Automatic annotation (TrEMBL), chains A, B:
Gene3D superfamilies registered for this protein in UniProt: 3.90.1200.10, Phosphorylase Kinase, domain 1
Species for this entry: Thalassospira tepidiphila MCCC 1A03514
Protein name in UniProt: Homoserine kinase
Pfam family, one: APH
EC number: 2.7.1.39
Metabolic or biological pathway, per its Swiss-Prot or TrEMBL entry: Amino-acid biosynthesis; L-threonine biosynthesis; L-threonine from L-aspartate: step 4/5
Classification via HAMAP family: Homoser_kinase_2 (MF_00301)
GO molecular function terms listed in the Swiss-Prot or TrEMBL record: ATP binding; homoserine kinase activity
The entry's keywords: Amino-acid biosynthesis, ATP-binding, Kinase, Nucleotide-binding, Threonine biosynthesis, Transferase
Recorded name of the encoding gene: thrB
Biological processes, Gene Ontology terms: threonine biosynthetic process
Family: Belongs to the pseudomonas-type ThrB family.
Amino acid sequence: MAVYTDVSDEDISRFVAEYDIGDVVSFKGIAEGVENTNFLLQTTKAPYILTLYEKRVNPDDLPFYLGLMDHLSAKGLNCPTPIHGKDGVALRRLCGRPAAITSFLQGMSPRRIQPHHCAGVGAALAELHSAGQDFEMHLPNALSIKGWRSLFDSCAEHADDVEPGLGKMIGEELAFLEENWPHALPKGVIHADLFPDNVFFFPNKEAVSGLIDFYFACNDLFCYDVAICMNAWCFEPDNSFNVTKAKNLLSHYSKVRPLSDVEKAALPILARGASLRFLLTRLYDWVNTPKDALVTPKNPREYINKLRFHQRVENATAYGLD
Amino acid sequence: MAVYTDVSDEDISRFVAEYDIGDVVSFKGIAEGVENTNFLLQTTKAPYILTLYEKRVNPDDLPFYLGLMDHLSAKGLNCPTPIHGKDGVALRRLCGRPAAITSFLQGMSPRRIQPHHCAGVGAALAELHSAGQDFEMHLPNALSIKGWRSLFDSCAEHADDVEPGLGKMIGEELAFLEENWPHALPKGVIHADLFPDNVFFFPNKEAVSGLIDFYFACNDLFCYDVAICMNAWCFEPDNSFNVTKAKNLLSHYSKVRPLSDVEKAALPILARGASLRFLLTRLYDWVNTPKDALVTPKNPREYINKLRFHQRVENATAYGLD
């Protein structure tokens, strides 16, 4: 959680006047998102979210993200809908930063993941993949397999500080994945960061009430997104793999967008790649975050364990697939 | 800003079920208050604030604070109204901490203080003092003049690290105040922390839309509360004193609760006391806050300058009083 940029009452009043959304009645910094500053903005019309894009988001990519949310909302997906100003423009500036107002989504992120959450998120991910298929903009995945080697090179010397032998393990895994990556699988718009923080539910309901935080979305393999999700939702806090959760996730995904046999066969290697991607970014942040930072970096260890699990998997039946 | 305690979706759903306020539809940690953890809780009925009381609040004092908010709300003052559970109890427990749900107040804290804000806060403070007069509970001010010496003793050795000679200056001021404090002035319930963060306005409106954060409220001299407010609202960011703002604050206060001649005459010494109180607590926090704390302590210097200003004041005409 972090509010990096303070916005004055005068600034927000002036900013809101550029929209046709009524007048501000309340405005509070919220502990949501670690990359950007988010405010809950209540106007005389409705609640909204105001996001100020901080330095980790490339401003050149914002039209893709906002365009995607516009596209997905129009398709009926529950995601933040960018609100356009009176001049039709959604991406604006506030306090020297790119900024946008989006609709407010009801629901809460689950803290303790239940099997029914995995069913819901599987279906929602497939709906996202389907709804994004006719989106016309294109953004390559900056954190795809092509980007991992340079990321590793920039922090390899510190890898063994996290765990002895980690540098060697990552090097070998990277070589294996570069050799065997299934580049030819079905592609499209993926979320690429569909962790529980970014998925809202109503209490005791299976269906997802909304997806947020599309600021890692890009074009890549659909099934790689499934693998990211499986890593994020199907391991227990003690690092054990919960096959019931995986089965729920994959079967509810497949009901909306069936996985081909080639995709199923590729799941173990995609899951290894998804583990390595988060291991590498966490390692990078671990090494590079100053001790007095607003945000505590996440421990890379969790993803070492996930990678080891998938390295031992022989085929997708380990994930509950037939 | 800080969210010290994480509350799971399951915990909040269970907790809300103890009230008759509908079901949870959204729940977000907010950057409001530095002592406690606050959440904006949206139910099917209305928005509310959930507060978890962290270690700096004495649990024994919570019945006073919540009782006071109940009392003031019943008198028509715009302040958070404690919501009582189905069993009638407002002060409950959540995640191992005392916790309470209160009503949600509209409006925003002003960042750049305008003279009209000072008029509004003056009137609101007097309304608070009047409305509190028949409140039956009593809580002595733990940070009154009687508490300053022990506070100073606990951090005196580090005073000169902030500014050479500061220890001597504080010692002399403390002796002067102990000798001359006007203990016999009118007393009652005071807010004791009415800084701009704790006062909400609607854009471009003079009238206060709500007062929050009653967790320093206590029984003490009304006019001491006026002096705290004057310090918090009438100095410019460059430490200059804005007499127009003070005149607005004092004249709008007096329209609701007239200041006696004795109170007016005592304002300079009360303002010195109010400066010393915040100088001492900021010095204490400055010395005692670990470098990796979630909250950055406020610099004590600001209150050294305020104290110096009031030491040079001969009488209350310097504050714009006739």
